[in-house]
Amino acid sequence: MEGILLAAEQIVVREDFDALSTRAVAERAKVPVATLYQYFADRDAIIAALIDRHVSAMDVRLTEAVAALGTYSVRSLAQVVVDAYVAGYRAHPSYVVLWFQGRVSADIVARVRERTSRLAAQFHGFALAAGLLKPDTDVLVLEVAADAIDGVLDMAYRNDFEGDPRVLDAGIEMIVSYLERHATPPGIAGVSSSDLAARWEPPGE
Amino acid sequence: MEGILLAAEQIVVREDFDALSTRAVAERAKVPVATLYQYFADRDAIIAALIDRHVSAMDVRLTEAVAALGTYSVRSLAQVVVDAYVAGYRAHPSYVVLWFQGRVSADIVARVRERTSRLAAQFHGFALAAGLLKPDTDVLVLEVAADAIDGVLDMAYRNDFEGDPRVLDAGIEMIVSYLERHATPPGIAGVSSSDLAARWEPPGE
Amino acid sequence: MEGILLAAEQIVVREDFDALSTRAVAERAKVPVATLYQYFADRDAIIAALIDRHVSAMDVRLTEAVAALGTYSVRSLAQVVVDAYVAGYRAHPSYVVLWFQGRVSADIVARVRERTSRLAAQFHGFALAAGLLKPDTDVLVLEVAADAIDGVLDMAYRNDFEGDPRVLDAGIEMIVSYLERHATPPGIAGVSSSDLAARWEPPGE
Amino acid sequence: MEGILLAAEQIVVREDFDALSTRAVAERAKVPVATLYQYFADRDAIIAALIDRHVSAMDVRLTEAVAALGTYSVRSLAQVVVDAYVAGYRAHPSYVVLWFQGRVSADIVARVRERTSRLAAQFHGFALAAGLLKPDTDVLVLEVAADAIDGVLDMAYRNDFEGDPRVLDAGIEMIVSYLERHATPPGIAGVSSSDLAARWEPPGE
DNA sequence: CATGAATGAGGTTTCATTCAT
DNA sequence: AATGAATGAAACCTCATTCAT
């Protein structure tokens, strides 16, 4: 079962998403196709499991990276998020393909969207409590920003398997400029972690 | 041959991109499958032809929309580009699917990228001649912006078949803020078309 | 094990005979598939057990119904047999499917045939002893009649899940007309149960 | 395409109906499986084509046999119908399996039923015009009789691949006794073909 | 006695493409 | 130029059964 997911990941990274067929996974994992169906209801379930892994790993990375920040500002938050993704993609190149091409069934799309909303809500709560965003800032702003980060990463990785750094930098610029419209002066200038009014909480399941 | 492309477009818009099989196209066009191969080398060639149509139509729209502007600024340019795309998608819903899911073969990807570069170069030439961007602005800036617009549209249409207007607005905001970093004061404030130092030239084939 | 057979029955009645897979049975019985093989040699053995249940239940019904008759004639016997089956099918709709589609392996076919012969012999012995059929009537006549009743029921239930009453009535008419060719005058006119020369014996296992 | 149907027939007669898989047909016909789908929409279409052949051949046999009768009575009609089927089954043993196990999809069931109705109507029209059945005889009687003949044949062939002649004879007895209840005296005694008031017409499509 | 895990064999269907006519 | 016919390859999935634990 571990082996199956590993094989699926390897296929995705060495070939492309469309190559992720049950046959190919089975062959690479060196198990009969029927064995796949012991662990996964169908092909979509394999993709979903892969994406879930990705999401979990990314959430851990993100949480830790944010917690480790020395200075909190909308810029440093945007930067740290993008950096976490980039680090994650570097460690597991399959994530790039999975994340941007794997939203294949309605079920998976819904799960990814739900997760984006959860993240946005978490950042919204934190940024407001910490005084980085104006008190009347709508959650929507963070949802759009989250989507934008997703889009920037898509752009950066679409044509460049390593993630085009110019696109990444430009993307961060764009997002920061958008967020700063809703930021407080400290949210723009930055607040030292020791002066922070709120604690960053890891997301619960 | 016209009929074949028409059929292909209808399939893409009524079903989805994966439904664009040679058999489906032939059936809808009411020609035998073998006949497709008289006009197109293979399935990818059909997709490429479809995308070429899209690109041509969009380029015409874009060119005309830019030429018709009353006031030129980086903001009005960004806005008019996004508007042109939105209008194009509204007129031909198949474009949404084609554009964001049709980049299927390396050949097609290369063509799309080449076209983005061409557009970016054109805008770069115009904006510099018209004094909207600082003279030392690199073409890169406009390529990144062009990619960003593409990404914003992708975001806006990914989850919402009509194009999420909030995402579109936020996206324009982001792009404008990025471009204004490289803009001249008139590029920010806007220049009346009658005072324009340069002419906007339609792109040649 | 009771649960397994119950599950199998439910599947047959809610879906159809082809849905009676080991997996489906195990799932519905909430036991692992492997556990089925503790109680049954293979899939056919489950079907056979199901049919055996059906046969036993039907035999009990039949025996009691015949024993309860007030007047004995070939007509009343044919009628009571068909009625007993119809009542059985009404009580256990799974029997319809099982009986007419369940003869799947040579083993099961042989068992069903053996049972038909047994029933025919029993009726033959009784009818002769009771003076309802001419003394020289061959067992064959009753075997054919038994098969005919089976056929009539098949006909009646093949197209109509409730059993087409017109077909049932016509079928009884046909069988009676056939049996009356071999019947004695009392076998046609009917004999009161109190005047009966022979006792109806329940079939032994 | 001829070869495909031939192969399908051979499989049905040498193995059984469940062995009629696309793979098996293709193998025996020595064509790739994909070729089947050039001529048949799916597996059911193959079965349907087989049954259609059967029906057509049987209808021809039936029509000719009835037309060749010297004496017309309900008995001779019942006999000739059963004889025609028996001769058909002898010539093409696959028909037995097809006819009694091939009614697998709703579509096929409907077609078979429609054909039975057509035949019944045809016999009804003829027998009334020829004065063999009482003028007020309902079509229903002939539909039930047609079903009964079907049932008798099923019985006769179910356990005996050659068709048990005792069952066939007994079956004819049953059907005749049923039909004679609705027959006119000439319908019972028989009418010479030269004295017949009506002509037997082949069924049109 | 119970069962998680594994699996070989097979099921139906679709695909893009070629080629002789 | 047009096309009917053919097809190799692959897609996803289900099945009954075994066996080591």
Task: Describe the protein.
The structure is a homotetramer of 205-residue chains. The first copy, chain A, is mostly helical and 205 residues long. Chain A has helices at 2-14, 22-29, 33-39, 43-67, 74-91, 94-101, 106-129, 139-158, 165-180, 185-189, and strands at residues 71-72, 191-192. Chain A has a two-stranded antiparallel ribbon with strand order 1-2. The longest helix of chain A is centred in the N-terminal third of the chain and has 25 residues, at 43-67. In chain A, 37% of the residues are buried. The mean pLDDT of chain A is 89. Chains in contact: A-B, C-D. The A-B interface holds A 109, 113, 140, 144-145, 147-148, 150-152, 154-155, 159, 166-167, 170-171, 173-175, 177-178, 181 and B 109, 113, 140-141, 144-145, 147-148, 150-152, 154-155, 159, 166-167, 170-171, 173-175, 177-178, 181. Chain A binds a DNA duplex (21 and 21 nucleotides) through helix 3.
